[in-house]
Amino acid sequence: MEHIKNEEGFTLILSLVVLITLSFMGLWALNTSDMEIGISGNEQRYQENFNIAEGGTYQEASAIGFVTNPYYAVTDPSNFIQKLGPNPSDTANYDPGDDMDPTVLGNLSTLSAIDVKKPEEWPHQNLLGDTSDNICDYSYLVTYLYPDFPPKGYDADSFSAYKFKINGARNTEIEIGGVKVGPKATI
Fold it and tell me: What are 77-115's pLDDT values in tens digits?
């Protein structure tokens, strides 16, 4: 007895199944690509913010001890853990780009009012000195810690080493320590 098998349409169904499978694999590959692009974009933004914060931290560290920024002068070495920087009422130096939230700036009467854990209250600056945009803006906080013995090669009767902590922030925070040598501290 002869059985006749009707296989008409099998090729159509098989091709549809393969097409649906390939479509799902294509969607998965596109989704993976979008995710990879998002990850690399986030990494690029993080690196940019890190570099600006680090550059700002080192820029402020290089200004300590020079007459270009007189507010970094340690007038009373016995006043430990003293925040140094422009006066908040001097907005031309404290926030030259006029970027800060006015309510935050209005609540800061002196540097001692700054909360160390809130970079939005710290003085603001721009790596390039450009106040027209926010591309290279950062926040910074310089803190005089204490005087110490001068490094080797300096006369300990005439010089002291002044220890500083410098923080820079732009969506990420950098902290470095530094030493400047100056006249003997009178404590």
Answer: 888 999 999 999 999 999 999 989 999 998 998 998 999
Helix (H) or strand (E) holding 161: strand 159-169
What backbone phi and psi angles, to 5 degrees, belong to 98?
Answer: 55, 45
What is the sign, positive or negative, of the torsion defined by CA atoms of 10, 11, 14, 19?
Answer: negative
pTM of the model: 0.77
Q: What is the dihedral of CA 64, 68, 69, 72, to 10 degrees?
A: 30
Contact status, residue 178 vs residue 171, Cβ threshold 8 Å:
no
C-alpha to C-alpha distance for 97 and 120, rounded to whole angstroms: 14
Q: Which helix (H) or strand (E) holds 175?
A: strand 173-183
In our burial notation (b when 16+ CB lie closer than 10 A, e otherwise), range 103-128 reads: eebeebeebeebeeeebebbbbbbbe
For residue 141, give the amino acid letter: L
